[in-house]
């Protein structure tokens, strides 16, 4: 029952961690102009160190060797997943025994990871110290429990004795740090705790057994974890002259006098341009530059026309406060592009709605700044 309660606590902690990472994900991926953007990537960790099985003996008496090999994937600057194998040797001891007894185990793990450095300090691929935390579950297979079997046969009755092979479910969590040596190699330090069934060390203690690990090794990053954004391409567009139609009236009279020249004004139809952005970004993509160019040409041709810009963010990503700021930055980015092309500030009106209004049915289409002339 105690193990079940511990596993439930691990599950609840994982859910809380997922919500926290979702709420902060946007701040980790917002890319300013000229900064490096995050790119998802794989990595591998090779670790070795010491393990300590919590028991009825002094700390040093229950220390044993351990090792781990893991492969992980980072989806975004904050959130990732890791799978691996760990284990080697574990020890147990009773206060009535002169010596400890040894057994072996091998544990498969699946962990959810959270990058603490990116969470607290924003994404920086050149940072030397990168801390992380993780929570996960595993399945441990115990074997070579001959020492405990011999003790039981010698008269030390062990209520949870097992022989041959035994499988245990584990919950785990820990902290780690990667120290950057190069773009692809990091020195790794990690401490973790694994909670297993009370039967893990063959003794009945009426509480879960704990295996503590201190590890050191290396993290190898595959592929590119960051990429530079493409430079914004600007276009110089010459103003198009306004065509006028002159109508001349002639009166039947001996003296022909020219009629007043009247300019026939054409009705200007409103123009709408939707400038779409990448997720958690306020940088105008090169694929949207032609829309900016069309809007500039229209405003230069119709000098009496004004334009209103309203920024939005999709409600499925980030928090209300982050989306409010992101929608404002998108509207201001379009305003800045228009001013750079000579459009006067008094012809531009800027507004932003955050994620309170969703003008489109698809989430990705709500990452937009809508421009409407009037």
Largest sheet: 8 strands, antiparallel, barrel
Structural class: alpha+beta
CATH architecture of the largest domain: Beta Barrel
**Any low-confidence stretches, pLDDT <50, length ≥5?**
17-33
Helix content: 10-25%
How many extended strands?
14
Report the span from N to C terminus: 69 Å
Give me the CATH fold name of the largest domain: Porin
Task: Calculate Rg over CA atoms.
Answer: 33 Å
The pLDDT mean sits at 84
CATH top level of the largest domain is Mainly Beta
How many helical elements? 5
Compressed to H and E, one letter per element, the order equals HEEEEEHEHEEEEEHEHEE
Chart the SSEs and their pairings:
Blueprint: H1 2-29, E1 37-38, E2 41-53, E3 63-74, E4 79-92, E5 101-115, H2 116-121, E6 129-143, H3 146-153, E7 165-180, E8 185-196, E9 209-221, E10 226-227, E11 272-276, H4 289-301, E12 307-311, H5 320-340, E13 348-352, E14 368-373
Parallel strand pairs: 12-13
Antiparallel strand pairs: 1-10, 2-3, 2-9, 3-4, 4-5, 5-6, 6-7, 7-8, 8-9, 11-14, 12-14
């Amino acid at each position: 029952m105690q193990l079940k309660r511990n596993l439930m606590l691990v599950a609840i902690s994982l859910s809380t961690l997922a919500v926290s990472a979702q709420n902060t994900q946007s701040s980790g991926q917002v890319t300013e102009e000229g900064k490096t953007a995050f790119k998802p990537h794989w990595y591998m960790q090779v670790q070795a160190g010491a393990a300590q099985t919590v028991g009825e003996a002094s700390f040093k008496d229950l220390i044993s060797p351990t090792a781990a090999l893991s492969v992980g994937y980072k989806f975004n600057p904050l959130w990732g997943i890791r799978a691996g194998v760990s284990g080697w040797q574990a020890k147990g001891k009773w206060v009535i025994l002169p010596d400890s007894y040894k057994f072996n185990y091998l544990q498969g793990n699946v962990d959810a990871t959270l990058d603490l450095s990116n969470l607290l300090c924003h994404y920086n691929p050149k940072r030397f110290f990168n801390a992380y935390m993780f929570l996960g579950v595993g399945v441990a297979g115990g074997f070579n429990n001959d020492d405990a079997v011999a003790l039981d046969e010698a008269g030390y009755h062990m209520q949870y004795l097992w022989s041959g092979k035994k499988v245990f479910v584990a919950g785990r969590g820990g902290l780690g740090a990667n120290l950057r040596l190069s773009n692809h190699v990091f020195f790794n330090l990690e401490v973790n705790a694994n909670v297993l069934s009370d039967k893990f060390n063959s003794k009945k203690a009426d509480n879960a057994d704990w295996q503590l690990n201190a590890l050191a090794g290396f993290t190898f990053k595959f592929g590119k974890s960051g990429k530079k954004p493409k430079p914004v391409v600007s276009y110089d567009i010459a103003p198009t002259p306004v065509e006028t139609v002159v109508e001349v009236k002639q009166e039947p009279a001996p003296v022909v006098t020219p009629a007043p020249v009247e300019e026939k004004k054409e009705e200007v139809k409103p123009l709408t341009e939707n400038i779409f952005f990448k997720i958690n970004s306020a940088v105008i993509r090169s694929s949207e530059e032609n829309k900016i160019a069309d809007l500039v040409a229209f405003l230069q041709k119709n000098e009496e026309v004004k334009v209103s810009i309203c920024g939005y963010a999709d409600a499925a990503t980030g928090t209300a406060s982050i989306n409010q700021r992101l929608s404002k930055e998108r509207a201001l980015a379009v305003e800045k592009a228009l001013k750079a092309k000579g459009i006067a500030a008094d012809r531009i009106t800027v507004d932003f709605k955050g994620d309170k209004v969703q003008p489109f049915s698809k989430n990705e289409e709500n990452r937009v700044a809508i421009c409407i002339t009037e």
